[in-house]
Amino acid sequence: MNPLHATERYAGHHAEAAYSRWAPVYDLIFDLPFHPGRLAAARAAGSAAGPGGEILVIGVGTGLELPLLPGNVLVTGVDISTPMLRAAEARVQRKGLAQVKGLHVMDAAELEFPDSAFDVALAPYVMSVLPNPERALDEAWRVLRPGGTLVVMNHFAASGGARAAVERRMETAAAWLGWHPNFPYAAVGGWIASRADARVVEQRELPPMKLFTLLRIEKGGGP
């Protein structure tokens, strides 16, 4: 069964199970290749939040973004995987990350926060993991204050060529991997186009090999 067409419960179960499997070795495999994107996303989030701003990290995982965020903000992280969050909590303690106010087991599609609770929502490498990215985007938007910023860092499928062929082949292992190598930009771009209060203020490709894209999206209605 292709998880792109599976039920949300099926896909969500496999994503959670996959990332629980990845937790013990996640940093070893996914740190350095993804670091340029993490750093760019963290800098964009920190700049948008400003001193004292509230940042929500969606899919915080083992917390690799947390030390990259400035010390003068307040950070809340959520993730569906308890083993991942245990690693994030250990990182917070080990590095003395006082800006992290809380880490919670939570579904990105059902955030347990009130409306307009955060200045910035940061979604690093998580859109292609989620069973229902549009609903997760809706939830991120809901908890953003008017004038807030959504920062998305993700891999999007190539439109053609050798890379597209490889991504299509890899998609058959998506359930085991826990993410979709053939994840289309339209899954996020279509959502942005549907929101009258959403404005893309930055879009750029990042290394390695321009495999990842940073999107900075502002929410209208601010001062």
In short:
The chain is α/β, with parallel strands linked by helices.
Kindly describe this structure:
Helix content is 37%, strand content 24%. The chain is globular and about 45 Å long. The protein has 8 helices and 7 strands. Strands 3-2-1-4-5-7-6 form a 7-stranded mixed beta sheet, with helices on both faces. The longest helix has 15 residues, at 8-22. With 223 residues, the protein is α/β, with parallel strands linked by helices.
- The string of secondary-structure elements, in order, is HHHEEHEEHEHHHEE
| Structural class by secondary-structure content | alpha/beta
Shape: globular
Distance between the termini: 47 Å
Extract low-pLDDT stretches.
Answer: 1-14
Beta content: 15-25%
Strand order of the largest sheet: 3-2-1-4-5-7-6
Radius of gyration, whole Å: 16 Å
Residue-averaged pLDDT: 84
Biggest beta sheet summary = 7 strands, mixed
- The number of helical runs is 8
Overall helicity = 25-40%
